[in-house]
Amino acid sequence: MEKKNIIRLELLALLGLIIILALIHITKPIEFIRERMDTLGYIGVFFIMFLSSATIVIPLPGLAGVIVAGASLNPLLVGIVGGVGSALGELSGYIAGCGGKVVIEKKKIRMYKTTKKWMKRNGFITIFIAAALPNPFFDVAGLAAGALDYPIWEFLLACSAGKILKCVALAYLGYALV
């Protein structure tokens, strides 16, 4: 085997190990949320959703927090607070899109190009639908909105509406499961 192939295999094995460790580590925050939800309350829901949405590309289990919170708090309020926190956290992707237009445009990412096309045709609906679905790729919509100079208030309105809808549904799921 060539040295290049050996290095690639080693890097692939390392990546696999990192992914496995990350998956094991993700379950710890869910337990933390469950144990402390009565203490954290609605402010905790807001910050959990804000932080989980503010991370670009790295998924954090914020939606699990909404489900758990819906079981012990008012599900409608959990959904509203969680949705607003999540939408505000998504501003990180929007701002990255504003600042990284040149870099983003140079990359030939198919998902970005498709999202950009949808954004140009019907930005509000695209953002709303992408935000309402349990979708790990929403960051692409935020990046596209920022790169296209989509109005920030329209982005926040569409994103908030979609995120609130999703969070209310998940909070009621948590309520129903208990």
UniProtKB/TrEMBL annotation:
What GO cellular component term, any one, is given? plasma membrane
Q: Where in the cell is it found?
A: Cell membrane
Which ranges form a coiled coil? Answer: none
InterPro entries attached here?
A: DedA_domain (IPR051311), VTT_dom (IPR032816)
For the keyword Transmembrane, the answer is yes
Q: Transmembrane ranges? A: 6-27, 39-64, 76-104, 124-146, 152-175
Q: Which UniProt keywords apply?
A: Cell membrane, Membrane, Transmembrane, Transmembrane helix
Task: Give the protein name, as stated in the record.
Answer: VTT domain-containing protein
Q: Which organism is it from?
A: Fermentimicrarchaeum limneticum
